[in-house]
Amino acid sequence: MIKKFLIGLTALTLTSSNVGAEPSIIDKPIPWSPHKEQLIERYTQEHYGRVQTTIVPQAVVVHWTACSTFETAFNWFYDEADADGELNVASHFIVDRDGTIYRLTDETALNRHAIGYNWCAIGIENVGGVDGVEDLTDEQLDANVELILYLRDKYPTIEYVFGHYQQDAARASGLRIELVPDYYAIKPDPGPEFMRRLHERLQDEPLTFFDE
Questions:
Q1: 161: how many CB neighbours lie within 10 A of its CB?
Q2: In this structure, which CATH number among 3.40.50.300, 3.40.50.1370, 3.30.360.10, 3.40.80.10 belongs to the domain 25-201?
Q3: Cα 82 to Cα 24: distance, rounded to the nearest angstrom
Q4: pLDDT digits over 124-182, tens only?
Q5: 83: which DSSP letter?
Q6: What is the longest distance spanned by two Cα atoms in the chain?
Q7: Which residues contact 101 (CB under 8 A, 6 or more apart)?
Q8: Which runs of E-coded beta strand occur in 92-135?
Q9: For the whole model, what pTM was predicted?
């Protein structure tokens, strides 16, 4: 009886230690200079009516890169400013085809990746989705599950997970803020099938998803 109890306790301990554990993450930072912070301040003043360069994470937005390699996505995010001299797009994480997770910025840095939600959302990009094809891999799904569990446990303020294409449905969260009229873009990423599978894997977690 004692032996069985100890075996059960060991199994319980191992299971509990794995919940929300930090997955293997490779830090590959993009530049973050005083100039970039000025660009962020200008962006947030225009779009949110206040100046901020960091976030209190309340949501995770899942994307695809619409390109076929990590290097292409990383290079796209690398520059601090875009061609118009405004804050360039970027995301906190990129997940490669084989499930490798790269962290590009601090998790509480403000990045421009989802209109209306940048002030409060962590962005996860997944390499794939070229020409709108839903081709994200099982390895990417596993990595997204691990990463979201880690983020949820690290930041209890996170309540919502949604795909970029669900930006309108996510208005129900009350989180969307956008002061610039007609500043909007229709997005297909990361596809409803990937979000359905992600929701299925995380359905027992205290997270809110939206209809796929």
A1: 27
A2: 3.40.80.10
A3: 31
A4: 999 999 999 999 999 999 999 999 999 999 999 999 999 999 999 999 999 999 999 99
A5: T
A6: 71
A7: 23, 24, 25, 26, 93, 94, 95, 143, 146, 147
A8: 93-95, 101-103, 121-126
A9: 0.90
